[in-house]
Amino acid sequence: MLIGRVVGDITATQKHPAHEGRKLLLVQPLQLDGRDRGVPMVAVDSVGAGVGDRVLLVLEGYAAYTAVGLKHAPIDVAVIGIIDAVELVAAPSNDAGAAAGTARPPVAPPE
Fold first, then answer.
1. What band does 8 get if pLDDT is binned at 50, 70 and 90?
2. What CATH number was assigned to the domain covering residues 2-85?
């Protein structure tokens, strides 16, 4: 799974029958700190996400087509959740702050 940000809607008047009535979104994958990761991708929406939302993506065919309730449909990526918050916890290291379990502040939602 990946975290992404919806950056656009896609309109396709001609598409596979399994995609009829399905909302297609253009989603930019993100690093945990909110920076772009790679290039935007087309995803089938299963949760009613919109432009600007941070979302949870699945990138494997079986997970993607079952998430949208279709069996054996040609879907590679699906939006399966809208993210409210991401909290990063510091990984253990040799410094005293990390050893004491100091947490990083939550990642701010996109504006």
1. very high
2. 2.40.50.220
